[in-house]
Amino acid sequence: MYRDENETKLSGKYCLGYLYVNNTRVSTITRPFDKIHRMLFPTCIPSGCTALDVQHLSTGLGFNLSIIENWCQTAGSQSEFDHLSITVVTLFGCVALFMVLSTIYDLYNRFIRNCKSLKRYDIFLLKSSITGVPNWILSSFSVYKNGKELFAIKHNSEEIECLYGLRVLAMVVIVIGHTFLVVHFQPIRNEYFVDHWVHQVQNMWIVKGDYAVDTFFVLSGILVSYSFMLKIVKNHKFNIIQHYLNRYLRLTPSLAAFILFVVGLLKFLGSGPMWPSFEGYTIEPCKEHWWYNLLYITNYVNEKVHLGITINFTITFVF
């Protein structure tokens, strides 16, 4: 037998959707998974078919199946650079260039200042020769300078130092809890083991790790109240607008950079059967509602559009 050269090559397409389960209870026995109403359902179809075709077929067979077209992918599916991705890469590249140049300038300037062979007059000429730009601006992106300030330990008699220990303990519990959460909610898992594990007493400190998050609410409230009382004792006015403006300017640049990374570059860093669903839950809502996160109002407007990691920013800003 010979293959016709004009014959179209059949290729497959992997699609992911939801299979809705009719879990009507037929007995009075309570089972662990009675609350499950839907489950992820993968299927392979010819590349010429659409998600709507699969849904029509499943309806005829008596299945309640919902296939999402954006979650379908073929062997040649890959993300392409768009204008947003190019803009993000260019912006991050400029910031990286500023960091390199600023670090070189900062190290060179520090080395010149510490050189005993130069006279004070020469150092003065060096400072004045940089087109009149202040030294702190030219070194503001220095990795050396910022790293040194970031890791510097400053003692202040007015600080409540024991709160640092509480923060560390709460952060450890939160990190461990998220680690177990990621492991237990993988596509391939033993549901019965997970259900048994979460009901064991020795695991409650991980299962109930959300109380560790509440610790940050309490600590933030304590620190704001303490800062307010210190200003009152010193006869200083507590300007609440300035207080929140300082917080906003301190937190928002790093949050904006993270959002740009998510909407512009994250799609190139993953692949696999579950990746389109991850993009649908993370990248697409972030593209549409990015300004919710920048205004820290996701918990008031729509909790489903926030990025998981931004909850820490919201806690720090609001509380």
| Count of discrete alpha- or pi-helical segments spanning 4 or more residues | 14
* Sequence of secondary-structure elements: EEHEHHHHHHHHHHHHH
Q: Mean of residue pLDDT?
A: 78
Shape assignment: globular
Radius of gyration: 28 Å
Proportion of helical residues: 55-70%
Protein name: Acyltransferase 3 domain-containing protein
InterPro entries: Acyl_transf_3_dom (IPR002656), O2_lipid_transport_reg (IPR052728)
Keywords: Membrane, Transmembrane, Transmembrane helix
GO molecular function: acyltransferase activity, transferring groups other than amino-acyl groups
Protein described:
The N and C termini lie far apart (75 Å). The chain has 14 helices and three strands. A three-stranded antiparallel beta sheet has the order 2-1-3, covered by helices on one side. The protein has helices at residues 51-60, 83-114, 120-128, 135-138, 143-150, 162-184, 191-197, 204-207, 210-233, 240-264, 275-288, 290-294, 298-301, 311-318; strands at 12-20, 38-46, 65-67. By secondary structure, the chain is mainly alpha-helical. The chain folds into three domains: 12-71, no CATH class; 83-150, no CATH class; 162-318, no CATH class. The relative contact order is 0.09.
